[in-house]
Amino acid sequence: MEGPNADVQVEKLVSTQVQRSKKTTKDPKMSSLNQSQNAGKPRLSKEQLETRRQEAMDRKISMAKERNSRVARIESSMGNISFNILQQFDPAYNKVLGKLGAFPIPELKQRVEDYLTAAQDLIIQLSDLTEKMCQDAEFRYFMPQDLKVIKEYYRQQEKQQEQQLEEIARK
């Protein structure tokens, strides 16, 4: 990963996909089609099938890493929901920022700033929740470096606001 602005593409690897691939079809037409395509081919053992699946997954992961992407294994339903939201959030976020640069309209600027502030607040809340859950699960939480910068910025702003309030109270 190079720099904070590098493209991030996350490929989700959900265990339910493996379960879905193991199911066979109930449609007799599809069943006979599969049998005719596989006629004369030896059946693979479970170990061979699992090895092939793992090799295919490894190829996908290495291809994603070559494109300077991230690969994540998501197994929980909440993680899956969060990932789906994130997939929609990222392009929307980029498009809104693009509109702000292309059309410097004051109303749009204020709305975009409100979006960004709300997004940062949610990210911080999610990070704090994740940190607490990790402590309860007894494994270490690694806060992203970019989030540390945002939190430090918020702390500095809060200190400045407190100092300003104290100066006003003194007068």
Characterise this structure:
The protein has a two-stranded parallel sheet with strand order 1-2. It is elongated and about 90 Å long. The N terminus is likely disordered. It is built from 6 helices and 2 strands. The longest helix is centred in the C-terminal third of the chain and has 32 residues. It starts with 9 loop residues before the first strand and ends with a helix. The protein is 72% helix and 4% strand. By secondary structure, it is mainly α. It folds into 2 domains: 67 residues, no CATH class; 95 residues, no CATH class.
Give the topology string: H per helix, E per strand. EHHHEHHH
Molecular shape: elongated
Provide mean pLDDT, rounded. 76
Q: Approximately what portion of the residues adopt beta-strand conformation?
A: under 5%
Structural class: mainly alpha
Q: Which residue ranges are poorly predicted, with pLDDT under 50 across at least 5 consecutive positions?
A: 1-25
What does the main sheet amount to? Answer: 2 strands, parallel
